[in-house]
Amino acid sequence: MSKSFGLILPNMNALVRIAILAICLVSFHTRNISCTPLQPKLFGGELELEPRAELDHYRLNEDVLPTHYEIEIKPYFEPEPQKQAFTFDGNTVITVTAAKENVTQIKLHMAHMDILLWSVMRKSNSMLVPSEGRTYDEETQIMTLQLKEGLLKNVEYLIVINYVGVMEENMRGFYRSYYKENGTKVWLGSTQFEQTEARRAFPCFDEPKFKATFQLKLNYKPVEYSVYSNTPIKKSDVLGNNRTLATFGITPKMSTYLLAFIVAPYTTSGDDVVRVLSRPEATNQTTYSIEEGLKLLKVLGDWVKYPFNNVTEIERMYMAAVPDFAAGAMENWGLITYRESSLLYVPEDATSLQQQRIATIIAHELAHQWFGNLVTCEWWDVTWLNEGFATYFEYFGTALAEPLWELEDQFVVEKLHTAMQTDGSISTHPMTHPVYTQAQAAAIFDAISYSKGGVVLRMLEHYMTKEVFQAAIVEYVKDRQFQASRPEHLFAVLDKHNASASAYMKPWTTQPGLPLVYVTGHAYGFSITQQRFLTNSSEQEEKFLWPLPITFATDGNEFDNTKPTLVATESHNISFENAANVKYFVLNNQQVGYYRVHYDDALWDKISKALRTRGFGGIHQLNRAQIVDDLFNLARADVMGYRKALDILEYLKEETEYAPWFAAANGFSTLALRIHPDDETLFSQHILDIFAKAYEFIHFQEPSQYERRLRIYLRRLVLDWTCRYGHEDCSKSALQEFEALRANSSAKVHPDLRQVVYCEGVRKGSLEQFDFLLNLYLTTNVATEQLLTLQGMSCATEKEVIHKYMNLTSSPDVRRQDKATALSLLLNNQHALESAASYLVENSARWAEAHGDYKHVAMAFGGILARVKDVTVKESIAQFAEANKDTMGLEAYEFISKGLEEFDHNQQFTMNHRDDILGFLTFKANNSGASQTVIFNVVVALCLALLAVW
Hints:
Elements: H1 12-28, E1 64-76, E2 87-98, E3 103-109, E4 113-122, E5 131-137, E6 142-151, E7 156-166, E8 173-181, E9 184-192, E10 213-220, E11 226-229, E12 233-240, E13 243-248, E14 261-264, E15 267-270, E16 274-278, H2 287-304, E17 317-322, E18 329-330, E19 335-339, H3 352-368, E20 375-377, H4 384-401, H5 407-423, H6 438-443, H7 448-464, H8 466-480, E21 483-485, H9 487-497, H10 501-510, E22 515-522, E23 525-532, E24 548-550, E25 552-553, E26 565-567, E27 571-575, E28 586-587, E29 596-599, H11 601-611, H12 621-636, H13 642-648, H14 658-672, H15 680-698, H16 709-724, H17 728-743, H18 751-763, H19 767-779, H20 783-793, H21 799-809, H22 816-827, H23 833-842, H24 844-851, H25 854-865, H26 871-883, H27 885-888, H28 890-949
Helix pairs in contact: 1-28, 2-3, 2-4, 3-4, 4-5, 4-7, 5-7, 5-12, 5-14, 7-8, 7-10, 8-9, 9-10, 12-13, 12-14, 13-28, 14-16, 15-16, 15-28, 16-17, 16-18, 17-18, 18-20, 19-20, 21-23, 23-25, 23-26, 24-25, 25-28, 26-28
């Protein structure tokens, strides 16, 4: 049975009243991988096996330092005599220098390859250094070459290694991918080396601090393939047997993870500076990326005062669309690789937000050409030196090229609020945080390194001023070019431009978490105190203090002041004459500072009153978004009650700006998961009521030509929520569009309406509607449209349809890169969780095979347990886990066990807060009924008076 939420009136009497009211009135006169709202973390927490070696053993020593690599790769995409398909022959010659006397061991990385021959020789005379053999540690992936004679200090040697590698389909190292042409698979090879996967393609010193130059040679079949790398081809030698050896120019001095190469039958579009590589059928989708890439490359180079081609080896910027790609994109120097959906753009098939996402991803990767490639984090413990800057320029760099997109506002709700969500957990980590293993290195690429990194840089910019901040960063890049960097290198340059810059910034990078600032008003000012904010724990393991950037506003004209006063003490008093008479007191103008704020009751009441006045009392939209986000999270953390928080949030009925609504959608998404099942009808009424005017403001219509970007994004958000909760006009309009499309598929739905149209069509439909979208998914040539159809299919509500979606997800029709996305989309659908769980119980072997192993089954169950409310679903998963413990393995079993614990925790949370939430919802429903009665009585009285006159 298909279930949908509608606007349910309290009782039949209400219906009668409305009918009479309507008659009287007539007589008298002859109604969001951006973006859907962010959901809580998909899986309850990463489960990582304990390191099986001493931590220091995962890192190379510095006895031997590389300076240059000569690498030759010969791939086989089909079997050849004595060669298996999807293997490659490799030969690597590494020039190294001993950093000390009498070195008899050389340690370097290699993984998933067979070493055929190796030797060490003195470069000057090619004399072999006698060897004793080699050892290999599979856990640390370190190969040790044993020498009978010690190396001489500061003398160059050559390490020569011949080997055979494998092009796997796991999107790591030098891997294989494919696209289809007339139904036939066309194979290609591409690379992904960050963080620690270069060792899969060639033996190397696979840590970012070991910078060297590289010269690559690719032995390939030119009739079938073209080849690309970081630098242009300098020489091509015909070898015979349909093979050519391409020799690429020597790279700049760089880290191993930045080397890249592609062997593919690609076409090239663009000019001499920016070129896009793609499969031939997608050539017509490259224009936008070329144009936007050129604009962004220039504005970023101008900002840093270091044009990209000042690095003479990088003569042009290739951007390649790869069919299978694990990340969104990768910043390889001169050859950036992307998912197709992150680079290719068709205006009539992509939403405005997808277009923006392509631009911001390009900006992020181009920013890495300076922050990551030219200046590189020394090790992954300071990943934020790469990713924090790239995230900052992802928004503020794109804003230089696209000033009308209001990206500065989006940064606050998308990055600052996201970082806070992660950082509010007791299990968070500081921006600078030790890592050793491959798993730890991968895990550090998270919201802390990316989002918090960018947020702290924005906070620093407002403290130093834009001009001084830019001057410092320009100097930092020039000072550290072609070198590895640590935070102290950045801090030293910052202090030259502002003596207290590092003292301000360092605590934000070395301490975990974020502050909660309490504000209390009194006759002569306002007192503030700080402590760590924690969502999921009341226990403070240790006390932290941060240098708080303090700004505040008591009137609408004060929010533009974002230059803060620093407060580094636990308590502080802000003197203010006639403080009791201010209209309101709002801390942290435009939410530049990275902290939450909780006010005393009197101050909250003033803020609430101001928000309900015309123009929201002049409170800046970013501070309204801040207030919304804080209220949801303060209630979630038991700092304030839900009843008070939800009451203040009633102001949203009049809100028309995107940033506050984006924050609200995040908050409501989390809250919806914790509403007691018996209270969901009241909650649905609340959602429809609070979104009612926003719907009337944006309407179900195509965006106009000159409409603000953020209004277009607001429409998508509002339609998503109103249709989901059964808004009659939204649902009717969406279904009309969907059925019109089914009747005539050439009459396309406007891209900015497709998400809600596709979703509602499947939500209210059955297998027939699902199959229509499935056909679009399987036949479209456009990656962004594939994502929209996949999202639409995830809105299914019937068990049969949901099982078909799960079958699709575990089939080759959904690429490996998209399988996690497909699952996360389904998990956002509350009505699909029970059916998804039953599918996994029945088809666990299929799911494990399709996704890699039983850990992925456990992760899917974990995602369900984090969201589902039905105890019978929990019990079925628990029974499955016990019955299949041996088959799944200990790691997967423990993952499900943690999910079961989280289910119990969520249930307890629901019960602890039910009375408070239900009290608000009931009071609101009753008051709405009372108001309706008053209006009814007034109108009836008027009608009676008119009748008396007649």
